[in-house]
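Notes from the pairing session

We agreed to fold both candidates in a single pass and log them together. This is the raw record for the first candidate, unedited. Please don't reformat it; downstream parsing expects exactly this layout.

Candidate A
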Amino acid sequence: MATTSDIRNGLCIKYNHDIYKIIEFLHVKPGKGPAFVRTKLKSVTTGKVIDNTFSAGHKIEDVRVETHKFQYLYAEGDTYHFMNTEDYNQITLEKSTLDAPGLLKEGVVVTVIINSEDQMPLSVEMPTSVILEVTATEPGVKGNTATNATKPATVETGAEIMVPLFINEGDKIKIETEKGTYKERIKE
């Protein structure tokens, strides 16, 4: 058993007869009343995100997990195929267990969290950022530069990202996977 002081991003817990992964948390100590922890929990079975508040010192049941590095191979409909980089065993995961399937490029190494009790994959942690090539976007018009103006761009995986006006087709850009947002243009 763990307590609210053990809460951290990525921790898997049993809550309401399901397994949830903590994706966001905030310890709050109001001036009046007891402290509490405000959390965002993502169900590893359904992908649904819920908000929950735990009072300070509340006992939570954590789930023992192992992490393994897997390389993304290919997608087949809503099924994604991965290969363990240590023993070369392959697993298939449903699209719902992935946080950002639109940013997965073949060959990317991800961390798969596996339940130690029954060896079932719980979730996939993407690298913090990925570098992808822009395949389609409208050309930027010179002089049309209001502060922080953006336009939609399609990257090589098919995902659509909002990018600054100076990005053109063929540019490689770094994308933050957690939010799916543009970070910077990569010069080669």
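Candidate B (folded immediately after A)
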Amino acid sequence: MDQPPHSRLFGTSLGFLAGYVDTLGFIALFGLFTAHVTGNFVLIGAALADASRASILLKFLAFPAFIAGVAVTRLMVLAVERRAGPSLTLAMLLQWALLAGFMVFGCLAEPIGKDVSSMAMVAGLLGTAAMGVHSATSRLLLAHLAPTSMMTGNVTQIVIDTVDVLRGAADGATHARCGKFFWPLLAFALGAIAAAFAYLAVGFVALAVPLILLGALIVVQQRSVRPAVPAA
């Protein structure tokens, strides 16, 4: 399994990406959560109770789209690792392709009206599938990092460790864990803020930011696993 050469770089960057994509999807597509997909259950409940709320079908379909992203990633990683291939690089490439589809179909759907058009539906499902790949990659290939798309656990761990620091019971591992969980959390928050302003400014083109970021990570990862060329 190919591991990222810079854990903090990957953890922080992927946290920013998840916060960015989740917020952009929420603002652009009728409150759709792409990364925090279980949040859609809350919105489905609200929509079922209030018939005036729109886009319930998109939120219903988001969950199987997320599951499909996770399942495809799992099967791909198993197949690639049997051949000792670059599983992390390929998983990130799959996420990049799905995010690119999210941006393209989102741009085709603009301007977004009160109803969910077919293009907006495809865009939302591609975005949710992309974050399914993101979550599966985090669990399967980046388990040594803090979670980058679900921040509730990160907040819980940071508070627990901070309490131990304040009461003088923290050791070196506690301090290291604080940094491990803090930076993705901060990056997620910054990504969420950046996405809100970027979408309001340029629409779905704002997804170019996470695409560039993820592309840079793919390049870094690919260079780290490239075999050294022997000297002549």
